[in-house]
Write a structure and sequence with these properties.
Blueprint lengths: L6 E4 L2 H5 L3 H9 L5 E5 L5 H16 L5 E5 L2 H7 L3 E4 L6 H7 L4 E6 L2 H9 L4 E4 L16 H8 L5 E3 L8 H6 L4 E4 L1 H4 L4 H9 L7
Helix pairs in contact: 2-3, 2-10
């Protein structure tokens, strides 16, 4: 398996269908192997997710950015994606591994109990959040940096999500995060390529 990327750019159905999606995806993918683009389209069915994932893979190839698929290990396996990201309503990491034997399997968690369960079920990494308040999930209270630290102590890489901005990346790293994930701060940035590099900057020089 290739190293787990540090910066994860999650999509949604609206982004996948946006006219400027290709330009923005290419700009984010220019960050190279340290970046992962996530094909994600909750509630939109498999067709949009599959077409979005294929398009992302084509855009990610020249700079060798990684491609992850959310919620569908079968689709990730069919497309030979680099990883799959699971939510609480998806298959367990162990069950997903039977379908997707080669690649990273992550699990979204919102508490220490969920993080421990995900590790016990075989998750390779944890997506922890929402760390800060975020308009993407206004109904979900922020868990704060303490959960990042506690989850990292379980021995799996932690990707912090929720209200993450380039300005907050350094303090998230200091709390123990292996990397960060975002939607708005990357895809809707005036300069997505610059925003990606700014997100990555606290980890520059790390192996």
């Amino acid at each position: 398996m290739r190293p787990l990327p540090r910066v994860h750019a999650f999509t949604d159905a609206a982004l996948l269908a946006a006219p400027e999606f290709g330009i923005r995806a290419a700009a984010i993918a220019a960050g190279g192997p340290a970046v992962a683009l996530h094909a994600r389209a909750r509630g939109s069915g498999g067709a949009l997710l599959a077409s979005g994932a294929r398009r992302i893979m084509a855009l990610a190839r020249p700079p060798e950015a990684a491609v992850f698929v959310s919620g569908r290990p079968d689709l990730a396996a069919a497309l030979v994606a680099d990883g799959v990201q699971l939510g609480s309503d998806d298959l367990t990491p162990g069950d997903a591994r039977r379908v997707f034997p080669h690649g990273w399997i992550g699990r979204s968690v919102h508490s220490v109990e969920e993080a421990k369960a995900a590790v016990d079920q075989g998750a390779d990494f944890l997506v922890v959040g929402s760390v800060y308040d975020t308009p993407s999930h206004p109904e979900r209270p922020a868990v704060g940096l303490s959960l990042v630290t506690k989850a990292a102590a379980l021995g799996r890489p932690v990707i912090a999500i929720g209200g993450i901005t380039p300005e907050r990346a350094a303090e998230v790293r200091a709390a123990g995060a292996y990397g960060v994930a975002a939607i708005r701060a990357l895809w809707l940035a005036p300069d997505p390529a610059a925003a990606t590099l700014a997100m990555l900057s606290p980890w520059m020089g790390d192996a």
